[in-house]
Amino acid sequence: MEIIREAVAGARNPVMLYSIGKDSSVMLHLARKAFYPAPPPFPLLHVDTGWKFKAMYAHRDRMVAESGMKLIVHTNPEGVAAGVGPFTHGSGYHTDVMKTQALKQALDQHGFDVVFGGARRDEEKSRAKERIFSFRAGGHRWDPKAQRPELWALYNTHIHAGESIRVFPLSNWTELDIWQYIHAERIPIVPLYLAAERPVVRRGGQWLMVDDERFPFAPGEQVEIRRVRFRTLGCWPLTAAIESEADTLEAVIAETFNARSSERQGRLIDTDAPGSMEKKKQEGYF
Amino acid sequence: MVAPGSQALEDFLENQQTRETLRFITCGSVDDGKSTLIGRLLFESKAIFDDQLQSLASDSRQYGTQGEHLDLALLVDGLQAEREQGITIDVAYRFFSTDRRRFIVADTPGHEQYTRNMATGASTADLAVILIDARKGVLVQTRRHSRIVAMMGIRHVVLAVNKMDMVGFDEGVYNAIVADYRAFAEGLGFAGIQAIPLSGLTGDNVLNPSAHTPWYSGPPLMAYLDTVVVQQHQPRAAFRMPVQWVNRPNLDFRGFCGRIAEGMVHPGDVVRVLPSGVRTRVKTVLAGFAGVAQARSGDAVTLTLEDEVDVSRGDVLAATQAPPEVADQFEARLLWMTDHALTPSRQYLMKLGYREVTASVTEIKYREDVNTGAQLAAKTLGLNEIATVNIATSAPLVFEPYRVNRTLGGFILMDKLTLDTVGAGMIEFSLRRASNIHWQALEINQRSRAQQKHQVPRCIWFTGLSGSGKSTIANLLEKRLHLEGKHTYLLDGDNVRHGLNRDLGFTEADRVENIRRVAEVAKLMVDAGLIVLVSFISPFRSERRMARGLFAEGEFLEVFVDTPLAECERRDQKGLYAKARQGELKNFTGIDSPYEPPEAPEIHLNADTVSPEACVESVLKRLG
């Protein structure tokens, strides 16, 4: 809460990235607490790839109505025009065009100088060194060597025109902290995090959910109904489900506590090449 | 295993909510095995998932230094550049937990050129793990790390004597190192030093007591971290909360948000608003959506007050008994964190709590050699250097000494132009209390003096390259004003350097001081009712801004005498450019020292195309 307030106090035009996932849900909840009884003094930005789960869109609209905040939805118009999608163009290209490029477009278009994101340091190695207030030069480039030292809780929020700051209030939270907080504060989350019977296809050793008719079946692939849930939510063709019986929050926490694989394993983009997340960040990915 | 719905899960959730967080920093040099030790802690505490282990196995083959074994250091060396060079160049944060505590580890590099990174990691830590290579013993860097850790206010230290496997777990070697370290650390003010013989590589005394060290009866590292008491808070500390944000959604609600820095607060408590000193009572304490009966140190809250008092961001709400001090001059320890040296008198932005003010270092008392602790004389302060300094601020600050309260005693300095964070400081004590400073109020003031002279006192500040025509124009202008019966004075760069500023050279530090003195003299003369013309190259924006800040609105006119460098060099009346080009003259503005042109001067003269007379006319027109 302190971090969110501090960023807003120094900002001209702040915005909160809202990805509808569990981290975003916690971040939104903290923002609402930080400014209560006022609504948070900034809009939510959803960079929509057009391939999110249907349940995510429903949840998003519900939370926007409940919080009384303004929602900005941005989809890369060039990507839409070119028909970019994860099945046709591959995960890397899709993520670049529909997420990274789309995010830059949205930020430029609205001139946001402070952008809240839900990233955590425990997610991936290059994130462990990310600042809580992370500086982006013009063109959104992240230079790991040009980051400002952060001492105590004294954040330097001054920037020049054209530069921006990404603020990560959840930097020091772990996946388990997120779940415990959701449990303790009874924060609403997308039902996909809880196990239910869903239509899935086995591909490359992972379970992919068939969320609409755009799923291109390979020869021999068949829809099966399995009890699955998601540890992380993104575009449905890029986010694998795990088989699970955990259909309550308590059960999910128990499962997470006992887990033997990290949550980004369900993300297909991390395993492309060594240092792949670091490269994406330098190009402006969150 | 924890099963859903089981007692174990209930206990677990219960446990998690009451679980403490311990933040610690690890200090050691490249070869001390620091990354390996942290990797070992993560590995042993099961913070590593299967897929991360798999990628570790593949990374170990590619980059590892342990042959076919898992190289645990690769778990923590994050950025690709570092992995390839095999060193850690930034602060990385790691997380693991036990049943009792969650841990946040700041992993920082040990080289002297990374002192600032270590200070950054230490600033939020409660404890430090200082690594020593058992084969090498206490080294210069061990002393440096310890001094930085002590300076940042860490009171608990683990002396991890690592690589015990390489010295055959020899008790004598260990004892000698520990005795050596204790002797050295005596003066550093640590509350506790726990020495542990261990090996990050083999895991001895990390999680479990080692069979190789029967002579050691103390706890293994993990057990110690799990149980050490580091709470510095005196439970009865008086309430302090810096106000971060004023929440005013409608006329009926006015809340003051912040994180409680010390003590506790309850509805009904009497508090004082500082620096104004007004007293009022707390009406409600909101923690998120709900009102609560009390909140304590570390909680982020919103308070409403009984009275409609004036409180803004940066003010401090404090218990009425023993309120913090208010002052505008301090002695502080300062760590410099950027290549561009700290220059006394130069103005920086200072942030303490949520208050930002302009501040300058008035004196560098001495620099400390971080390796030996020796006190050295210094005129400027370079990257990673530490000094004890006097600091003056443009407005009074509510503060407490750093050793008493990190929140109200720690500050950062930011450069006004680059906006970078350039310094980190810790207040030791105030040099004088703000309440004791009074300007001598004089009966005859600037207005009465000006009226007697029938003129509006002003400071007309000419800036431009050497040879741009500043002095020529200023001279002509003074003649004109004099003919009109005005009382004037012309301060000229060359002339002042023959007298008042005879002791100053042309280094950046001296140029800053040169301008400060001239600006102060001009200010006194304007106060005397004169129209003062200042003709100085004054190449740096920050000093011109400082000069402007001394005068009232409208009293200061910046005149940019804009003659291109090529033209100045062609004129070269004093032959200085020729000398500078031949390298006979160092730090010459425009040649090997920068000139920062004004961004918004009151008057901009294109002195290469317009005659000096015409230039004077435009200045006169502006004076009215």
Task: Outline the structure in words.
The complex is a heterodimer of chains A (286) and B (624). Helices cover 33% and strands 16% of the residues of chain A. With 286 residues, chain A is an alpha/beta fold. Mean pLDDT of chain A is 83; it is low at 269-275. With 624 residues, chain B is α/β, with parallel strands linked by helices. Chain B is 28% helix and 29% strand. The model of chain B is unreliable at 83-88 and 434-441 (pLDDT under 50). The interface between A and B is large, with 59 and 70 residues.
Give a brief description:
The complex is a heterodimer of chains A (286) and B (624). Chain A is an alpha/beta fold.
Keywords:
heterodimer, A: 286 residues, alpha/beta, 6-stranded mixed beta sheet, 4-stranded antiparallel beta barrel, 9 helices, 10 strands, 33% helix, globular, B: 624 residues, 8-stranded antiparallel beta sheet, 17 helices, 28 strands, 28% helix, 29% strand
Helical segment count of chain A:
9
- Percent strand of chain A equals 15-25%
The beta-strand count of chain B equals 28
Q: Which structural class matches the secondary elements of chain B?
A: alpha/beta
Biggest sheet of chain A, strands in spatial order? 3-2-1-4-6-5
Could you report the average pLDDT of chain B, rounded to the nearest whole number? Answer: 85
Specify the biggest β-sheet of chain A: 6 strands, mixed
Instruction: Please provide the count of β strands of chain A.
Output: 10
Structural class of chain A: alpha/beta
What's the Cα radius of gyration of chain A? 19 Å
Biggest chain contact: A-B, 59 and 70 residues
Strand content of chain B: 25-35%
